[in-house]
Design goal:
By secondary structure, the chain is of the alpha/beta class. Helix content is about 30%, strand content about 20%. Helix 1 packs parallel to helix 4, helix 2 crosses helix 4 and helix 6 runs parallel beside helix 7.
């Protein structure tokens, strides 16, 4: 009846959600008016949520999907592949977006691809082109969903062509939903977003991102894992009005502020590359995705320093420097023997290891995030708040780090949010490898391997 759909499923801030078709030029005009008014009121930017198409069958979607198919397939291909005899008169009984992968078909995946491209074009028209015509430095980003790498049934970008993935966007917010808000340490489940963070970092060309984990209990671990993997730690879901939670937010964000030079625009330091199988996903084959998750967990559990990059973005120069490239499209388990020269980290299984290099320095920073804790009595409980985080200190970590051939180590320093003052750590260098023990820490520690002739930030 010409009225937007109104829902209160989320009610963030008590506000309603208004639904309209993004292919409808009149609805885009409404969005442009909202953008104009927001800029007039002084906003710095927009974080866009609920950017969906669903199964809209309006005339605008019908015509746009016909145009999309006509530009992608010949009449013979449309007839042979999809049974479409006359595209111009064909009326689609469904034009789905997300759907059950088990019920997927080539045509349904074209519908999903069309939906995500159409949404991206609407985003670009309204926020990138129009918004930045009013305010050239307007910050624009999307709040999307990933969960445990849900594809076809989730992830607003899962079938986007690589040239559109994140284009012209300043940062990404990816929600992991309820997939990672608990631990099951006996089963080796740490409830960590390390693999998701590395995928987004590699896909987004190392631009800023955050993970929405709905984490109100493991505040320190949630902040630490993003800091350790190039992300922007968030405290959106924490109960900051709780004095104990607020103290840890102040402590951890204060630590990141103090050592800003180590985090701002730093670069990942890795020895192995794990590719993300976007090509197979685009063909509806999710078996390589299952293998990717399995391989990723094995690498994390073995404390291997590795990056993640989508296979449809790989260029030959991006493979330089890696000792091993793992492709889950053709590999279902790690090789029996990894390259002999890889760095080695031994210690508690509930500790994840990452590495980075500051943007203006040549040091190597090793990040250790400890997920060990006294778990709630109820299995897989997200907990009541920070009183249920109850971390157990990590001890017994040993480092055997492969150094760059030209790197001469002057000192090794340990810093933690609980003890931010640098603490010298004894070390030795033998045959181009640094060896040391990591002192006990609570949740997060950074080991700064500093070369000679370099000033501290």
């Amino acid at each position: 009846a010409g009225q937007p759909l109104v829902d209160r499923q989320y009610s963030i801030g008590g506000m309603a959600e208004y639904w309209g078709c993004l292919n409808n030029p009149h609805w885009r005009a409404v969005l442009r008016a909202w953008v104009r008014r927001g800029i007039q009121r002084g906003v710095d930017g927009f974080m866009i949520n609920y950017f969906y198409r669903h199964n809209c069958l309006c005339n605008y979607c019908q015509e746009a999907f016909r145009t999309y198919l006509g530009g992608r397939f010949s009449p013979d291909e449309l007839r042979e592949r999809f049974g479409i005899e006359d595209l111009q008169t064909h009326v689609f009984p469904e034009i789905v977006a997300w759907h059950d992968p088990e019920q997927s078909t080539p045509l349904r995946r074209e519908m999903l691809r069309f939906s995500q491209i159409a949404n991206k074009r609407a985003f670009d028209e309204v926020f990138v082109e129009y918004g930045r015509s009013l305010k050239p430095d307007l910050i624009v980003a999307q709040w999307n969903h990933l969960g445990d790498f849900s594809q076809i049934a989730g992830d607003e970008r899962c079938l986007l062509p690589p040239e559109l993935w994140g284009r012209d966007e300043d940062y990404l917010w990816y929600s992991t939903g309820g997939a990672l808000v608990f631990t099951d340490l006996a089963q080796g489940f740490l409830g960590d977003g390390t693999l998701q963070a590395r995928y987004i970092r590699g896909a987004f060309e190392d631009k800023p991102f955050t993970l929405g984990k709905y984490e109100l209990t493991r505040i320190r671990a949630a902040i630490a894992e993003l800091a350790a993997n190039g992300g922007a730690p968030m405290g959106f879901y924490t109960r900051f009005q709780d004095p104990a939670a607020r103290n840890e937010l102040i402590r951890y964000y204060g630590f990141l502020r103090r050592y800003d030079a180590l985090y701002r625009a730093n670069r990942p330091h890795a020895e192995v590359l794990l590719t993300f199988p976007r090509r197979a996903i685009h063909e509806g084959d999710l078996r390589p995705l299952d293998r990717f998750k399995k391989l990723g967990k094995e690498l994390l559990d073995r404390k291997v320093l590795f990056d993640v990059r989508p296979d449809d973005l790989l260029q030959p120069h991006l493979l330089d420097g890696y000792q091993l490239v793992l492709d889950p499209s053709s590999l279902d388990q790690l090789p029996a023997e990894l390259p002999a020269g890889l760095s080695l980290f031994t210690g508690p299984p509930a500790v994840r290891v990452s590495a980075s290099r500051p943007s203006q320095e040549d040091e190597i920073d090793l990040h250790f995030v400890n997920y060990n804790r006294q778990e709630p009595a109820e299995p897989r409980s997200p907990g009541r708040g920070i009183e249920d985080e109850r971390p157990i200190p990590a001890a017994g970590l040993a480092v055997d780090l492969l150094l760059r051939p030209d790197m001469h180590v002057a000192e090794v320093l340990l810093i933690t949010p609980e003890d931010p003052e640098p603490r010298a750590v004894p070390f030795s260098v033998i045959s181009g490898r640094l060896r040391c023990d990591v002192p006990e820490f609570l949740v997060y520690a950074v080991l700064r391997v500093r070369p000679t002739q370099q000033e501290q930030p």
